[in-house]
Every structure is written in C-alpha cells, then in structure tokens.
Write a structure and sequence with these properties.
Blueprint: H1 3-10, E1 15-18, E2 21-24, E3 40-42, E4 45-52, E5 57-61, H2 78-83, H3 88-91, E6 96-97, E7 100-101, H4 102-109, H5 126-139, H6 144-163, E8 177-182, E9 185-199, E10 207-215, H7 220-230, H8 234-246, E11 247-251, H9 253-261, H10 274-280, H11 286-292, H12 297-302
Helix pairs in contact: 6-9, 8-10
C-alpha cells in the first residue's frame, strides 16, 4: 500500500512540523535517529523515537488522549484522579472496589486462583499493596500517571504495529521494533501475544492477552555503585534486586491497573516495580533512588506489602 494511502487509512498525518523542521512519521523511517526529545509533547500529541530491527529509526505518534481509559483513574479514587496519588488516610477505609469486597479480590488475586502466579504474593493484600506502592511513588517525588505513561506508550506502539501487520503472527511475537528512546535512555522491547483470557481480579472486565519484557543495560559504574551498597545480599538477593530495578516482565493489563487503581501487582514475577520503572524509563537514577530510601533501597524493592507492617 502506498505510504500516503496508508496514512489516510490510519487517520495519521504523514509528518510532524517541529521547531522549524519537518520530520516523517512512522511507518516511514529514517537512516539516522531524529534529533528530538523522546518522549516529545507537541501540539497536544505525544511521540516517541524507536529503533527498528533493521537499524532504521521511526518517530511514532503514541498519544494517550486518543484512548480515554489511558488517562483516567477509577471513579472510586477521586484523589488519585485529581493529584496522581492516593489519599492515604482514605485507603485505610477501603473495603471494596467496583462493588467487589476486597476479601473477594484478594482471594482471586492470590497465586493459584485467577492465575497460577497470582497478582499478589501469598502473604499480601490488595489494600496493602496499593498503600505501600503509593508510599514508594510519593517518596520518589513521582505520581502514578508518571509511571503508567511509558507503559501506555509501549502498548500503543504494539497496537500500531499490530494494525500495520508488523507482528509475526506465526511466532506470536513482536519482531519489528527493537528499542525505544525514553528520557535519554534506550529501552529494549520484547512482546508476545497469547490466546488471551487472563481475567483481572477487580471485576472491571479487563483481560490480558500479551506479555512483554522491557530492560536496559546497566552502565558498569552504576552497577558497581549499587553493588557497593547492597552486594551484601549475596548472589541470589543481589540478582533479584538488580533484576527488579532494571528489567520489567509484565502484561498489558498493568498499565490499566496502575492508571485506575495505583496497582502495580504485588511481589510476583509480573510486578511492575515502581522503583524499577522509575530507573528503567529514565525518571530517577540509582543515586536519586538511594536518596529517597537512604540505606533501605533493597527493602523498598524486595519487602512484601503485608497488612499491619507498612511503615
């Protein structure tokens, strides 16, 4: 299909005029990386730069406002909708969500219920996880929308390539885009589709059908800096800490649950750790995370959120 006709079909402009220059928009690509911030907000639209598997670069419109659910908190959390953070005092009185008692949600979210891995560790509860993670996000000086935004941008990249037929359906794998530039960092992307059917424990109608992995290499100096402070955990503990901070393995459902509820999952393999997301997407450096949790960065990442133990 000719490029101009393809843009018409997708209802996307073919170029972006910015700062006196004109840039072609994906699915057009360039041999050199566009000299632009990524993410870029321009005239009410959002763009990111990607590198494709063939070594070319694309500037892609990933605007969240085209999809209202990507920017809206749940109606039961007006403080979250207004500020991007929870009313911590109000969370103490939370007893239900979407008309479902929290006890029922906890039951469905634990390992072996709606999913084998669960949305919570066996000793965690939804209220404790939402409360604990809200405190982590506050301590970093961020909001839940700050951390959901890059997840939405990746999800929109995936959907654009699905619409373009640039997804290897035989392998059930996204094999077109290699990396995304984000806040000066290059984040590697991998994603796969499944038969779907993973239900949300919140009774909100969400179903997961994809799994994704995002990571970026740790510069040697940064890894040594972190190891000097937390290498005492030994190989197993150290690898878990480093992995949580530099790699995210998750599904598309987590972008929705972070936006709607401030829920990143409990300490499961599918968790979007708030500190890991902050480092991975270039929002906070290791020293900045350490300043937010002096001497306790390891506990902030590894400690489970159990009712009655959140400090």
């Amino acid at each position: 299909m000719p490029f101009a006709l393809l843009c018409l079909v997708l209802s996307l402009p073919a170029t972006l005029d910015h700062a006196g220059r004109t840039y072609p928009l994906y699915p057009a690509t360039t041999e050199t990386c566009p000299d632009l911030p990524s993410p870029l907000d321009a005239r009410g639209r959002e763009y990111v730069i990607v590198e494709l598997k063939d070594g070319t670069f694309g500037l892609i419109d990933v605007t969240r406002a085209d999809h209202p659910e990507q920017v809206s908190a749940d109606d039961e959390f007006p403080h979250l909708a207004a500020t991007g953070l929870h009313d911590q005092a109000g969370l103490a009185f939370l007893t239900s969500l979407n008309g479902r008692p929290l006890a029922d949600i906890d039951r469905d979210a634990r390992p072996g219920a709606l999913s084998a891995d669960g949305f919570l560790a066996a000793d965690e509860s939804v209220r404790a996880v939402i409360t604990g993670d809200d405190r982590l996000v506050r301590a970093m000086g961020l909001t839940h929308p700050d951390l959901a935004r890059p997840l939405w941008h990746i999800w929109n990249l995936m959907q654009i390539d699905l619409d373009l037929g640039r997804w290897n359906m035989a392998h059930h794998r996204w094999e077109n885009i290699r990396r995304m530039k984000y806040n000066g960092c290059w984040i590697f992307l991998d994603a796969h589709d499944t038969k779907g059917g993973q239900q949300s424990p919140f009774g909100d109608g969400l179903e997961g059908a994809f799994w994704m992995v995002f990571w970026r290499p740790v510069p040697v100096a940064e890894q040594e800096w972190l190891h000097e402070r937390y290498g005492h955990h030994g190989p197993t503990g150290w690898n878990e800490l480093l992995g949580r901070l530099t790699r995210i393995y998750t599904g598309e459902m987590e972008a929705f649950t972070i936006t709607r509820y401030g829920f990143y999952e409990g300490h499961t393999d599918w968790r979007v750790d708030p500190l890991g997301a902050a480092w991975l997407f270039g929002l906070r450096s290791f020293p900045e995370l350490e300043a937010a949790f002096p001497g306790e960065l390891d506990r902030a990442v590894l400690e489970h959120w159990v009712e009655g133990t959140i400090r």
